[in-house]
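Wed. Picked up where I left off yesterday with Diadenosine tetraphosphate (Ap4A) hydrolase and other HIT family hydrolase. The coffee machine is broken again, so keeping this brief.
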Amino acid sequence: MPEFTPDPRLEADSYPITELPLCQLRLMNDARYPWLVLIPRRPGVVEVYDLAEHDQRQLWREATLLGQALKGNLGGDKLNIATLGNLVPQLHVHVILRREGDAAWPGPVWGQGRAEAYDLDALADSRDRILALVEGLDGLEDE
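Structure written out below (C-alpha cells, as returned):
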C-alpha cells in the first residue's frame, strides 16, 4: 500500500502544524485569515466517500472541533469549512475563520487578492496558538 504524502501544491502553499488522529493539520500561508487545512492521511483519497465510514466521521469531528476552537478562541463572525479540490484532487478540508471586513468578505477567500505570506515570527506565533487549541480539544480521538 502506498504511503500518504501531501499533494505538492498543498505542501508549497501551507506549513505543517501537527498530526491529528486522521489528518495532517497544516496552516495556509496567507496571514489575512486564520486558515487551516486538514488532509486525511490515507493515500489515494479524492472524495469524502473514498474514506471508510469511521474515517468520514473522524474527518468531520476533526474539522468541526478545530473550527469551533478557532472561532471560540480567536473570535470571528463565520466559520467556513469546505472541500473543493478542483485544482488539488487529494481530499483536503479547509477550515477558515472569517471576519466581517476581511480581505474577501463576504465572498469566498479563493481568488481574492494576493496571499500575504507569514513572516517567521507570525508563523511561529500562529503555530503555537494552533497547537495550544489542538491540545485543549476534547473528543478529538477516534471513537
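Quick read: The chain has one domain: 8-135.
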